[in-house]
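Field: sequence (string)
Field: structure_tokens (string)

Example rows 1 and 2, in order.
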Amino acid sequence: MAVTNELMTMQRALNVVVGGTNLTREEARGVMEIIMSGEASGAQIGAISTALRMKGETKDEITGFAEAMRSFSNHVHTERNGLLDTCGTGGSGIHKFNISTASAIIASAAGVRVAKHGNRAMSGKSGSADTLEALGVNITLSPEQAARCLDEIGICFMFAQLYHPSLKYAAGPRREIGIRTIFNMLGPLTNPAGADRQLLGIYDKSRTETIASVLGELGLKRAMVVSSFDGLDEISISSPTQISELLGGTVRTYTITPEELGLTTRSLSEVIGGDANENARIIRSIFNGDDFGAYRDIVLANAGACIFVGGGADSLQAGVAVARTVIDSGKAAMKLRQLIETTGELSHVS
């Protein structure tokens, strides 16, 4: 009988959305709870996500879905204050290297506590999990091991597949319909450690203000949602980037150019990456001081934003300067070695 009631709830939600009416935050949370519980059929999951996409997902709908997903997640229990994530949506269709992953390591080396959340590639050639694995990082830490890693060296990586097991119910329908839906936005909104600061890249610059507002509803203290005019879900060095900045519960939107960050505008083709091994090579070359070109510059832009959002600098420009110093001093390379060594050691600790 419970299943019948839940199915009727999904049917009512579909009728609401197909009719062009928005779900309330509570209704959206209830729909996602049904999905995460495995009580919705694949047809219903595909239908509701497609209908929401066609109507246009609201702040309340995205927030409700994210709240439910958070409640079903495996959590990392640690001090959340001043904790940064750099997880983005992906889906830009541009096969760049793993900029947010490199930026997270640099931010940690600058003294920002980082709980990096990420997954294997969904649309690109290499996700953060793939590239970190190629660098030698153990990506399969349990919540307890991740918390210890964070406490010991100031950074951890949380492999999304291990922390959101209930998403398996949506995996098939998502794959079968093959379009971007609300699920593409949820990963970056569901940090398992409850990070209260975030640099979040999104493929659609028309949604930066909405997503920044959602982050505020979810309790984040400070965040930047970025989307470049050339289609990157990163701060670009090839075009201006739109930024919606959350601070003190208020969202402010503006654009920034590479020159305003003290960087030179370069061709987008200069930041294209490859598979996991190639992206790992690029990151090592930046950290080892062997690369002073576009790869390094786009990492400086994004790592600078991470440092700024994480409280390690008073402006984006100052954050870029700190990131440059961290790389040139060898601290970034040292932090990567720490992450490799510590996650390797923790893999033998229950």
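Row 2 begins here:
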Amino acid sequence: MNYAVQIKDAELQLRIYIQPKASRDEIVGMHGDALKIAITAPPVDGKANAHLCKYLAKQCGVPKSKVAITKGQLNRHKTVVVCAPAVIPEAIQALLNE
């Protein structure tokens, strides 16, 4: 079982390691025991967090209001919850199937 990615009570729970100021937004893969996501936004004034939520909302086909950072607001390691995702991105689905 992969603890970085779980589905519980119709919520997608992600343990993320974020890489801000990347050249493009993408789900990179595993980084230790967390899912690494690269985003283009800088880690300034909550921009990286906002961008991460927007990116995950788009990937999962839900409004931004359905994505919440529940842990690690000021940290590269975060816990993010996506409520009732319409779509599960391929990279995350592959981890769920492990």
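free_text_note (row 2): Helices lie at 47-60, 90-96.
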